[in-house]
Amino acid sequence: MIQVSPPAKLQSRCQNLIAGNWQESNGQEERLLFSPYSGAALGSVPISTISEVSLAAQAAAEAFEGWRDLPIKERSRPLFRFRELLLENLETLSNCAAWESGKLVSEAQAGILKGIEVIEFALGLQNLASEQLEVSRGVWCQSRREPLGVVLGITPFNFPAMVPLWMYPIALTLGNCFILKPSEKVPHTSQLIGELMRRAGYPAGTFSIINGDSKTATALISQPQVEGVAFVGSTPAARSVYTQATALGKRALCLGGAKNSIILAPDADPALAVRGIIDSFTGCAGQRCMAASVLLAVKGSEHLIEAIAKAANNLAPGREFGALIDSAAKQRIVAALEDATREGAKILVDGRVQSAPTGYENGNWLGASIIDQASASFSCARDELFGPVLTIIRVDTLSEALQVEAASPYGNATSVFTKSGAVAETVQKRASSGMIGINIGVPVPREPFSFGGSKSSKFGHGDITGSSSIEFWTKLKKITSRWEDTSDRSWMS
After folding, report:
1. Given Cys at both, which of 146, 267, 331, 427 links 416, Cβ 3.0 to 4.6 Å?
2. Which CATH code of 3.30.300.20, 3.40.50.150, 1.10.150.20, 3.40.605.10 fits the domain covering 16-256+457-477?
3. Distance from C-alpha of 269 to C-alpha of 70, rounded to nearest angstrom
4. pTM recorded for the entire structure
5. Which residues are catalytic?
């Protein structure tokens, strides 16, 4: 059943990549790592010291002076090579990301391929043109985008490869130098990718990796050389990082958590709806910010709920979806199911009774669960559970469903399953989320369309990928010039 192949060799202790070289950390503090699949030891990750943080920031600042001056075509050349190296090592990278994060290998591979789409978008930035216009007689105005300088990416455990790939291909191609602080829960995939970046030919200091925890992230944000910070993680952490960075005068874009809604209309296509909803809440074991958390079932869709429950009962952990990241995550979700029952909801599908895959009994496995007859006030309907759990709230009308959606503090994604163009248009117009799906359970935009939510799912302006990411990773410089005196003057000349 299990298709993952444990990486043949992992470093017993992860290293930092500073000034183009792998370095052992001097930090005495470290975190032991275990595979979510089996509980097998994966070595350890150090908590880097302040001196190592400062060294990486200084090396990046020194590299920036030469990197920024290269034409964008030259900055793109290593990225072409890096793309080919990712494809050549796709199987190894997918297995490593799965083994340390709990994903299925197919899910890990899909994340890397999505990251390669971002690379391809970044390679198209060679066509980024400045604007120039004669605004008055003999007077020209021009705008040009220039890099920020040293930028920082702080990434989560659930996508060890994909989320970092949202950031550094675009940031580097636009002329920045990038420091990656990967999640301390899944550092090994970044170790492999860091080596591929070296082989691709990125100059020393342009791309760095510093391992550590939240204290390390705080130290990195505080470095005077760091001009911009991108973050993906929980809402409390996103708010904290955004507050710290902006208080220091730095640019920040921080993506937080989610409580995504799917509106199920009575006329929904059964095949589209059942498969789309199942895949949305169980994919990646529900450990993604685009997972469906709440099903707003409009009156008349009861037959579809029955089909969804039947399909969920037939899912097996390890076959259709992977493991949870750690035992604490499993305990949290089990407690949430118990709380839902106490609050008056009904457990329609109970993942607690599912067995772990044979041979992987020490892993963090939990079956798909569906909570039915919940109220919008229940904790299972309000809180981000980050697991393979769907909460059903039954409503009488589409208007009532949209009221529940709008009341959520989160605003990442909202989908609707319907055959009605009018219903779909109403949801597009009135839903409060930043990403909308029509008969799609996981409405992730594809490049060049950008990824980003609203409300407490995002702190900062713009989006982290796609066309709008260009504004985040650069600053706009405006130049006004005149080269000759003109006989006919305007007020500007």
Report:
1. 427
2. 3.40.605.10
3. 53
4. 0.95
5. 289
